[in-house]
Design brief:
Chain lengths: ~240, ~80
């Protein structure tokens, strides 16, 4: 099964895909922006400030999802010695970090009109900040360690410690008294968010996921070309 | 209508700042990754050009090499 993950085969797809993904992202993001900024209603309590949710929540979701994917790929890659999984994980990390930062900054901007403060050491915010630190440690580890085997080991350890933080982020609003409200959207029960707000939220999430895919593809192609450059040096 | 969209009941500054920050982050990340990609691809093309005919013929047998060389305008 793992032969399908060989760089030769993957590059055939990843080298051509970015332009289509970019086009799709621009279309969906434009629709999402129109929905989020113009068509969706204001909240009865938070008024127009609720529109920040359409960038804040998808960014947080993608950032958490990306870190979980990085951990899974690193673990499987380490156990089965699939180097390409590390390449995929490494290529996913930059967009994950940027989404994490977007979630933190837009959260702070949303916090000011809603809670009256830019920042609070609340459980959800603090755990998101910790996730950003894990992203930074992960990316720095790739830069520090020249020896690839050591880099694989260290980055896998970082992701294992980092993944402990992911359920803490998710359930922090239930476990502790925080400024954040409990989750409005649930996979298992009915969501408390109205469809007029859910639609732009889902469209923006799709757009953000596409942007993450776009950056991943470009980064992955760059990493493969770097390897080929080293290969040419050896010829 | 336009004023409402900009002002947003006094929340315009917050809403537009959040959306602007997101857009700036997206653009910056895209540009940085694109520059890195172009730099590596150009390096590859230059290195390929320096190979003698025998080595170039051997290198060309690898499918990724052909893909990189043919993709001169990837996004």
């Amino acid at each position: 099964m793992f032969k399908y993950f060989e760089p030769n085969k993957i590059f055939l797809v990843t080298s051509k895909a970015p332009k289509y993904v970019l086009f799709l992202f621009i279309v969906i993001f434009s629709i999402g922006l129109a929905e989020a900024l113009i068509l969706s209603p204001e909240d009865y309590k938070q008024s127009h400030s609720v529109r920040i949710m359409y960038v804040h929540v998808p960014a947080a979701w993608i950032s958490l999802g990306t870190f979980s994917a990085i951990t899974l790929l690193s673990l499987v890659g380490y156990i089965f010695k699939i180097r390409n999984f590390f390449l995929i994980s490494k290529s996913l990390a930059p967009s994950g970090l940027v989404f994490n930062i977007i979630a933190l900054v837009t959260g702070a901007i949303w916090g000011k009109p809603t809670w009256g403060t830019w920042w609070a050491w609340d459980a959800r915010i603090t755990s998101m900040l910790i996730l950003a630190l894990f992203y930074i440690m992960y990316l720095v580890a790739w830069r520090i360690f020249e020896n690839k085997d050591k880099a694989f080991k260290v980055t896998t350890i970082i992701t294992i410690f980092g993944i402990i933080n992911v359920p803490i982020i998710k359930y922090s609003v239930d476990w502790w008294n925080t400024l954040h409200q409990p989750a409005s959207i649930s996979m298992l029960s009915e969501s408390s968010i109205h469809v007029s707000m859910m639609t732009p939220l889902l469209i923006m999430t799709a757009a953000f996921a596409l942007f993450s895919l776009l950056i991943f593809l470009m980064k992955y192609n760059t990493e493969l070309i770097k390897i080929k450059n080293k290969g040419l040096d050896r010829l | 209508m336009i004023n409402d969209l900009i002002y947003m009941n006094g929340y315009g500054l917050y809403v537009w700042s959040a959306f602007s920050f997101t857009l700036i982050s997206f653009t910056s990340l895209f540009v940085i990754v694109k520059i890195q990609y172009t730099k590596e691809r150009n390096k590859f093309v230059a290195k390929f050009g320096l190979l003698n005919s025998e080595r170039a013929a051997f290198a060309k047998t690898q499918s990724i090499n052909k893909e990189i060389l043919s993709n001169t305008s990837n996004i």
